[in-house]
Design brief:
about 120 residues; alpha+beta; SH3 type barrels; four-stranded mixed beta sheet; three-stranded antiparallel beta sheet; 4 helices; 7 strands; globular
């Protein structure tokens, strides 16, 4: 990977896919390490409603958590394999505890008339 990474343009809000190209969420936030005047390093991707709902006004954040749940999954930066149009991981989604909400939603959609 590069020494310099434009996190806003190349990481935030990008789709996350696992090693098998299975979609498993979006990068909602990043975890950084470093102090004032020092180098900042990305230590993890944060995926899920719990990562972005806190940035909303209180009433909207609470509503989002109630509707979508407040789960936030921390994916260590060491799991990132490729940063491109999508963020590709080195592991399967289930190994890093991602994608379960997508799988749950998919099962619900499959039950809707005409979804076949």
């Amino acid at each position: 990977m590069e020494d310099y990474l434009d996190i806003v343009r190349k990481v935030l809000d990008h789709e996350v896919v696992d090693v098998n190209d299975v979609p498993c969420g979006m990068v909602d936030d990043v975890e950084l390490e470093g102090g004032p005047g020092g180098e900042l390093k990305v230590t993890a991707l944060l995926v899920g409603v719990g990562a972005w709902a806190e940035r909303l006004p209180r009433v909207f954040g609470a509503a989002a958590k109630k509707v979508f749940g407040g789960q936030r999954t921390r994916v260590p930066w060491g799991e990132v394999w490729i940063v491109g149009e999508r963020i590709k991981l080195k592991s399967r989604a289930s190994e890093v505890k991602l994608g379960h909400a997508d799988r749950k939603a998919s099962k619900l959609v499959e039950k809707l008339p005409g979804s076949g």
